[in-house]
User: Which sequence fits this backbone?
């Protein structure tokens, strides 16, 4: 198991116990890291506070990634409390429900803007905030979460597929920009998992069944399995890996039928 003793990390994207970001927080904490965890809006504050009770002295902060002031506050608090930062996990994504049910051609300008702002631009904003804190540590690791809908068409994934394609391009450009400072930027492309975000995609159960039927491993994946891969990307075990999209989907992405 990765050793993250003495490391500090920021985890964005915890909504509840089923969140992929929560599985990563648990794994990173078990490996010895001290964490700052964020919640989006008062609605989710209690969930995140309750879950985080089991973490090692966490810093719990509000962060709506569409709000630059909240992002600035997160990094100011991390600087004050931790003095530097070793890793960031970005698990924020959103698309308005209508955009995930209407025909793709009906995608609205506002729905497009909001989806790409929350789901892709926010990685750039978080990387910029983390940069000076990671420089103090001599480098760092940034990990985001994506889905195969960036490259292939899945029913109802719609504008989120476009946002994930943008997110994956952001991974490559950030990796190129920040690599000389020893900051690595990677994504995990996870197979489908029933989470709050997934509940917005109509027909999600049939996507899960297709993975069970056709993925080489003949099953879907669990959040803990995505977290294991995230720990690899956070830790020194992956010290030469950057600009990578690591797929954790039981091999489904390789199938042709
Ligand atoms: P989730 O609903 O638990 O997490 C999504 C998070 O995004 C929530 O915590 C929500 O609060 C946060 N978020 C939305 N808008 C935000 C905003 N404006 N500011 C800050 N946070 C905001 O669902 P999840 O499935 O764990 O999603 C985590 C990531 O994994 C997402 O990027 C998702 O696209 C990706 N992913 C999920 C699956 C899946 O099948 N569940 C598969 C591949 C990738």
Assistant:
């Amino acid at each position: 198991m990765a050793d993250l003793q003495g490391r500090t990390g920021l985890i964005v994207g915890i909504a509840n116990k089923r969140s992929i970001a929560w599985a990563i927080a648990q794994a990173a904490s078990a490996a010895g890291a001290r964490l700052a965890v964020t919640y989006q809006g008062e609605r989710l504050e209690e969930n995140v506070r309750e879950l985080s009770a089991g973490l090692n002295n966490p810093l719990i902060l509000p962060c709506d990634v569409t709000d630059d002031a909240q992002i600035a506050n997160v990094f100011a608090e991390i600087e004050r409390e931790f003095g530097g930062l070793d890793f960031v996990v970005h698990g924020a994504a959103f698309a308005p429900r209508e955009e995930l049910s209407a025909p793709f051609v009906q995608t609205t300008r506002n729905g497009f803007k909001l989806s790409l702002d929350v789901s892709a631009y926010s990685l750039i904003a978080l990387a910029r905030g983390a940069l000076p804190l990671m420089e103090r540590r001599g480098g760092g690791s940034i990990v985001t979460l994506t889905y195969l809908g960036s490259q292939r068409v899945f029913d109802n994934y719609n504008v989120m597929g476009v946002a994930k394609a943008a997110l994956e391009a952001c991974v490559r450009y950030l990796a190129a920009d920040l690599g000389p400072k020893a900051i690595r930027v990677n994504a995990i492309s996870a197979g489908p998992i029933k989470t709050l975000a997934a509940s917005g995609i109509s027909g999600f159960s049939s996507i899960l069944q297709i993975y069970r039927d056709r993925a080489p491993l003949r099953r879907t994946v669990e959040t803990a399995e995505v977290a294991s891969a995230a720990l690899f990307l956070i830790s020194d075990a992956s010290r030469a890996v950057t600009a990578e999209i690591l797929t954790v989907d039981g091999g489904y992405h390789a199938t042709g039928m």
Notes: The pocket of nicotinamide-adenine-dinucleotide is lined by residues 13-15, 19-21, 40, 44, 63-66, 91-94, 118, 145-147, 190, 192-193, 195-198 (CB under 6 Å). Strands lie at 8-12, 34-39, 59-62, 87-90, 140-146, 183-190, 245-248.
